[in-house]
Request: fold
Amino acid sequence: MDELRHAHMFRARGREILAALPQAADEGAAFQAHAFAPGERGLDDLVVEAESDDSLLAFLHLSEKAAAQRFAMYREVLGFDEATQGVFTQILRDEAFHMNYTYAQLRRVSPKKHGLALWWARLGRLWKGYLRLASAIANVMSTVILTAQYFLVLPLFALFAKAAARRLPRGWTPARSASPLGSQY
Reply:
């Protein structure tokens, strides 16, 4: 319910900001905000049923903690816009509550191993970050290597093919003689 309320707060504030902007010369143009917000990270491959209670609570706690840190930064950066800063202050309060609540539930569910669950969740985030970075690096490397092959190696093979074609006789050539049926060649 809090996340839905946050969405309503963002939508209302966004409408206020858009209403305050001067009208565009082209009335058919529309503001596309979804290009700036690609979505949550880390929830794409989360299978709740496959997680234990403590690992899920540790994941949620770290997610809420990261959200609280981001909203604190947003609030600080938007010091010039008191209305938007107020929206972030309200959401920050909720995120801090969620962070504390998930930590309390983690301690309740796993009183002796809650610290270990948090470390495993951090390592999982670190591993997924490494995989994203490695994938991005591999993408760049493959682009560079394939481009180099296309422009450097492929022309060499084309030159070799032309040279080999020049050595072949022109026109029809007689077929080679048939090999005996008993031969492996």
